[in-house]
TrEMBL record:
It comes from the Eukaryota. One of its GO terms (biological process) is glutathione biosynthetic process. Its EC number is 6.3.2.2. The keyword Kinase does not apply. InterPro entries: GCS, Gln_synth/guanido_kin_cat_dom. It catalyses: L-cysteine + L-glutamate + ATP = gamma-L-glutamyl-L-cysteine + ADP + phosphate + H(+). Belongs to the glutamate--cysteine ligase type 3 family. This is Glutamate--cysteine ligase. It is an enzyme of class 6 (ligase). Signal peptide: none annotated. Gene3D superfamilies: 1.10.8.960, 3.30.590.50. One of its GO terms (cellular component) is glutamate-cysteine ligase complex. It comes from Adineta ricciae (Rotifer). Keywords: ATP-binding, Glutathione biosynthesis, Ligase, Nucleotide-binding.
Length: 603
């Protein structure tokens, strides 16, 4: 959700005039947060996931499926519905998203430290879809809420219901195929974000995704809609708007650490897991109606959300603000920060002088290199010291694979949290719960056994790139640490082990085996999730991306030309709907005996 606020968003020129002042406010607020919260101890292990869901409408007669622009109408009804639910375990917190065909659902209360909470995740995710589906069904039996990481023909042809007008005059970013009417009318900051990103960048967004070259794909392949765009590259699918990225859906998990120091350690150990989990979650092989050579969304949003000017893009060491995590945070791991990203020196010095450890000060010093792309006028000049708006605003406008979330000044209950952000959304609740619970368990396993998987940032970034490659879960090797050695390992070795390394799933099984406080149902459910992760890494089950790709390649009307037609999309999304609602099995992505004992209520 990021930071949502009502009020008038400032224009980019207005923000530009106030940048220095805004930065000073933000740094001072961060210092205040640090002094107030640095000694928090023994905060509970609470945690929660965020699921982004896509609204679609089927037109069965014409074999079409389109994105349904209806989130702004559904959200007030969803809020009302949940206000009336007494049992908190059955309540969902719904948030608007950037695009009006997406809603975000999170558990109303974060999950607690009891192991039985692992068993509630899937039921909670199912409830989210059921709540929306029920409202949709009151109006039409053609409307569905689905987990789709990137809608296959997003940006191609007439892809929305209701129909909207396309063309550069319908877009502040001058996009040819992503008009402003995609943007949620009730998300106060997205419109301003896309305007200000466009103005700051001084030019159009440019995303080039390598096409999957099939036997009848033209060579070179040229995305004809963009034939006059100087940014178009041969053999690439092209996207030209930030909305191309904001329309993708992800799965995020936030963990509260027991203390400030604990949050830094947790963050550092989650860094090497980001590319691993991105690879396992891969679910995006199709872009703008073409099969691509990538399997995940991350680098695509990264390019779409990039607000750097042409000059800044020439400077190698500043990346898109949507990018991999640039630094380890603890002094102990600073030797692994082997990429030289710029920092605001004055900010770093000021933070160090306030007692903030040097490595962490550099992380924040890099954060403050970024401009706040959205500012709400009413919050520009703080009236008192009661909140940390400017720090949180900036922190929520930089989209790294991990986010350190310090406690907000105006919430005494909240502790230091780390958000895990790389994963693509999965087609099924089972898949989303499995990955969520696996990451949550990994945090416990790493801390309990004092494991250390940290490798240099440059190798983590290389792993991020490899994770995007077609079928990376089976084909790629990734840098991974076992003991004092870093070697390149297949996903199967990382997850299931080899002669030198026990494997992340066996380590998790050991941890589960040693804990005596886990009830039988939770144990059973967790084992199904571990099986999914294990088999995906072993290649005996497919990633969502591989399955989607195979569906297209084997479709009767596919012409070996990389084109995903309306008809193929209709059949694919229909199939996804049947699978996610349990009407059809899909043994390539989930064995039919992988049933869980999930329950909305923790013991
Ligand atoms: P954002 O979009 O900024 O990441 P959201 O409010 O959408 O923030 O999601 C925050 C996530 O953090 C949710 O999954 C929520 O359950 C979880 N969460 C909220 N409070 C806590 C807490 N005290 N400890 C751990 N997780 C929390
Ligand atoms: Mg959110
Ligand atoms: Mg979101
Ligand atoms: Mg989030």
């Amino acid at each position: 959700m990021g930071l949502l606020s009502e009020g008038r968003p400032l224009k980019w020129t207005e923000i530009k005039d106030a940048l220095k002042q805004i930065r000073t406010y933000g740094v001072d607020q961060l210092i205040q947060v640090y002094h107030k919260c640095k000694n928090r101890q023994r905060d509970a292990f609470t945690w929660g996931d965020e699921v982004e869901l896509t609204l679609v409408r089927f037109d069965h007669e014409n074999k079409k499926v389109q994105l349904l622009l209806k989130a702004h109408k559904l959200l007030p009804a969803l809020h009302k519905l949940n206000e009336e639910i007494q049992d908190e375990a059955c309540r969902i917190a719904w948030h608007p998203e950037a695009c009006d065909f997406v809603v975000e659902g999170v558990p109303f209360q974060p999950y607690g430290f009891l192991p039985s909470h692992f068993n509630t995740v899937e039921a909670n995710m199912r409830l989210r879809r059921e709540q929306v589906q029920k409202l949709l069904a009151e109006q039409s039996d053609c409307d569905f809420i689905l987990n789709i990481a990137a809608f296959p023909r997003y940006g191609q042809g007439e892809y929305t219901h209701p129909a909207i007008e396309y063309g550069s005059s319908h877009s502040v970013e001058e996009s040819l195929c992503f008009p402003d009417s995609l943007i949620s009318p009730i998300h106060p900051r997205t419109k301003s974000l896309s305007e200000n990103t466009h103005e700051r960048r001084q030019g159009k967004a440019s995303v080039n995704i390598p096409i999957f070259k099939d036997s009848s794909t033209p060579s070179p392949f040229r995305d004809n809609l963009f034939k006059d765009d100087p940014n178009l590259k041969d053999d690439h699918i092209h996207l030209d708007s930030t909305a191309a990225g904001w329309g993708c859906c992800c799965l995020q998990v936030t963990f509260q650490a027991e203390s400030f120091e604990g949050s830094l350690r947790l963050y550092d150990q989650l860094i090497p897991l980001c590319p691993i989990m991105l690879c396992l979650s891969a679910a995006c092989p199709i872009w703008r109606g073409y099969l691509s050579d990538v399997d995940c969304r991350w680098n695509i949003i990264s390019a779409a959300a990039d607000d750097r000017t042409a000059v800044e893009r020439q400077q190698e060491n500043i990346l898109s603000r949507y990018g991999p995590t640039p630094f380890y945070l603890t002094d102990e791991k600073r030797h692994l920060n082997d990429l030289d990203f710029p920092v605001c020196d004055d900010v770093v010095q000021k933070l160090i002088s306030q007692g903030i450890p040097e490595t962490l000060s550099r992380h924040f010093g890099h954060l403050f290199v970024r401009d706040p792309l959205v500012i709400i006028e009413e919050f520009l000049h703080p009236k008192d010291d009661s909140n940390s708006y400017h720090f949180e605003n900036l922190n929520s406008l930089v989209w790294n694979t991990l986010r350190l979330k310090p406690p907000p000044l105006d919430d005494d209950l909240m502790g230091w949290r780390v958000e895990f952000r790389p994963m693509d959304i999965q087609m099924t609740d089972f898949g989303n719960a499995a990955l969520t619970v696996f990451v949550a368990l990994m945090t416990r396993v790493i801390l309990t056994y004092n494991l250390d998987f940290a490798i240099p940032i440059s190798q983590v970034n290389e792993n991020m790139n490899r994770a995007h490659h077609r079928d990376s879960a089976r084909q790629e090797k990734f840098y991974f640490r076992c003991g004092n050695e870093i070697s390149e390992m297949y996903m199967n070795e990382i997850i299931n082990g080899n002669n030198d390394f026990p494997g992340l799933v066996p380590l998790t099984r050991q941890y589960i085996g040693e804990r005596e406080d886990i009830d039988a149902d939770t144990r059973f459910t967790i084992e199904q999730y571990l099986l999914l992760v294990s088999k995906r890494a072993a290649g005996t089950l497919m990633t969502n991306a591989s399955w989607i790709r195979q569906f297209v390649l084997s479709h009767a009307s596919y012409k070996q030309d990389s084109v995903v037609t309306e008809e193929i999309q209709y059949d694919l999304v229909r199939k996804m709907e049947q699978i996610s609602n349990g009407h059809e099995d899909c043994p390539q992505i989930r064995q039919s005996n992988m049933e869980t004992h999930t329950d909305l209520h923790a013991e």
